[in-house]
Amino acid sequence: xxxxxxxFEQPSALAGRVAELLHQELSGGLMRPLGLATGRTMEPVYAxxxxxxxxxxxxxxxxxxxxxxxxxxxxxVGLGPTDCGSFAAEMDRxxxxxxxxxxxRVQLPDGLAADPVAEARRYAEAVGxxxxxxxxxxxxxxxxxxxxxxxxxxxxAPSRSLSLSAATRRQxxxxxxxxxxxxxxGAITLGLEQILGxxxxxxxxxxxxxxxxxxxxxxxxxxxxxxxxWLQGHPGLRLIVDRAALEG
Length: 248
Ligand code: GLP
Hints:
This protein has helices spanning about 10-25, 40-55, 60-65, 85-100, 115-130, 165-170, 190-195, 210-220, 245; strands spanning about 5-10, 35, 70, 75, 105, 135-140, 160-165, 185-190, 200-205, 235-240. By secondary structure, the chain is an alpha/beta fold. It has one domain: 3-Layer(aba) Sandwich (Rossmann fold), CATH 3.40.50. The strands form three sheets. A four-stranded parallel sheet has the order 1-10-9-6. The chain is globular. The protein starts with a strand and ends with a helix. The relative contact order is 0.19. The chain binds 2-amino-2-deoxy-6-O-phosphono-alpha-D-glucopyranose (GLP). 2-amino-2-deoxy-6-O-phosphono-alpha-D-glucopyranose binds near residues 41 and 141. 2-amino-2-deoxy-6-O-phosphono-alpha-D-glucopyranose binds near residues 37 and 141.
């Protein structure tokens, strides 16, 4: 697999490194939008980022607030910011609130849109109108999905509204009282087309539960059964993992 690769012994060191890279991105000159992800992998990453940013002198923290522009990968259909299982609520809890960001600077697909198909199209257009993603942060689904691009999935999959697989609803059940049936059945996601259109990609894989899918990703050539495998050909890919994810 091409691209830069880093492995950390401890999950906390991995989170600190990813936070450092995000901080660098947010401190740069002309910034293209950040692509953000949610999920358990990102919780310690965002906590580390918040700690770094809140330790800055007030003028530097304000500069970060002023230049912040991000687009999340995905959202559940039927959930809005006031639903605690929504990705919008996750972003509020983990970044918007603690950093005092203007909510409009942190965009997500609208899970409450009356027409999710049209919302997926509108959202992709908004990403394009903002100049496309500079740095895209990604977690890895246990079935190889990125965003909610479920297998099988080709590299040109557009942003869309889709049904979630049973595997993904099981993976994400913890945020819904542990009950996969309570995980919404549908989602809106940026497509692999938009993800692969990012200038740089930061794929973060943490924990022994991801060892099987990471081993496949490192071994298999690109193909539709493993959506993340299409990242392999991206010239700006950086893969950051911890020892547990690498060795199980
Ligand atoms: C979820 C999300 C992804 C996330 C991935 C890994 O379903 N749609 O954006 O990165 O799966 O989640 P986790 O970090 O909780 O393992």
